[in-house]
Design brief:
250 residues, alpha/beta, Rossmann fold, 8 helices, 7 strands, 44% helix, binds nicotinamide-adenine-dinucleotide, NAD(P)-bd_dom_sf, SDR_fam
């Protein structure tokens, strides 16, 4: 059982996109364990129901984060249900196909960009005004080490994650004089279902680049996010946190 900070999120409410699976699910579980209320936003309603079965009092909204109207509606619905949203963690993303850049279809490229960049923008945009009104907010966007380094045969994904870093730094600076912080985490390979979309060659390639010579666990990412999303992390915004077993280029 990992160390937990019971009561850290007492009285706080969070939205976790992509929270029905993998890292998002671990973050949702951790925030609930630490006393917060959580609503997961995910496009997979079956997985939302499975998550609700294991996490007590979990709320869920089925939504495609690439649809701006649906995201705005999810925000209204969640604020009505929870009374407020103090924390936003954006975990929803897809990897897209593993292939050379020039072999990508335009549709595949656009889908990755739509979900991984536009989806993060839509969710941040939908909740920032509410956080400003309440004079408190913690936004943690999940990017990737791929966004810093660039991964061969994953250029749409790498491009999208570089954009999430840029969005986080820009929005963090725009909000720096408010009580709303915006940070992002950059995991390296973490063992989740997203691996099912990757070729074995790509998985071996990722592993070869991690100095700790192992994959990360979802709980290890959730532990870092729990701190960044807490009141305690108050003098940090527009920052990028590696959770990568030592893999980093800058
Ligand atoms: P995952 O596939 O287990 O979970 C992603 C979740 O997002 C799923 O529940 C899925 O239904 C949801 N989702 C996908 N598209 C959506 C959409 N359009 N609208 C709403 N929900 C949508 O993935 P994961 O491994 O937990 O990854 C979580 C985050 O961490 C992602 O942003 C990913 O890029 C990032 N990341 C993962 C790793 C890794 O090795 N697993 C490494 C670096 C960064």
């Amino acid at each position: 059982m990992p160390m937990s900070f019971a009561g850290r999120f007492a009285g706080r409410s969070a939205v976790v996109t992509g929270g029905a699976s993998g890292i998002g699910l671990a973050v949702a579980q951790r925030i609930v364990e630490e006393g917060g209320r959580v609503c997961v936003w995910d496009r997979d309603s079956t997985q939302i129901e499975q998550a609700k079965a294991v996490i007590a009092d979990l709320h869920g909204v089925t939504v495609d984060v690439a649809d701006p109207e649906a995201v705005a509606q999810a925000a209204r619905q969640t604020i009505d249900a929870l009374g407020a949203v103090d924390i936003l963690v954006t975990s929803a993303a897809i990897t897209g196909p593993n292939m050379t850049t020039w072999d990508y279809s335009v549709e595949d490229w656009r889908r990755v960009i739509d979900i991984n960049i536009n989806g993060v923008f839509f969710c941040n945009k939908a909740l920032v005004p509410h956080m400003l009104e309440r004079n408190y907010g913690r936004i943690v966007n999940i990017a990737s080490i791929a966004g810093k380094e660039g991964n061969p045969n994953a250029s749409a994904y790498s491009t999208s994650k570089a954009a999430v870093i840029g969005l986080t730094k820009s929005l963090g600076k725009e909000l720096a004089k408010t009580k709303v912080t915006v940070n992002c985490v950059t995991p390296a390979a973490v063992r989740t279902a997203i691996f099912q979309q990757m070729s074995q060659q790509h998985i071996d390639f990722m592993l070869s680049k991690i100095p700790m010579a192992r994959f990360g666990e979802v709980e290890e990412v959730a532990a870092l996010i729990s701190w960044i999303a807490s009141e305690e992390c108050s003098f940090t915004t527009a920052a990028v946190f590696d959770v990568s077993g030592g893999r980093a280029t800058y």
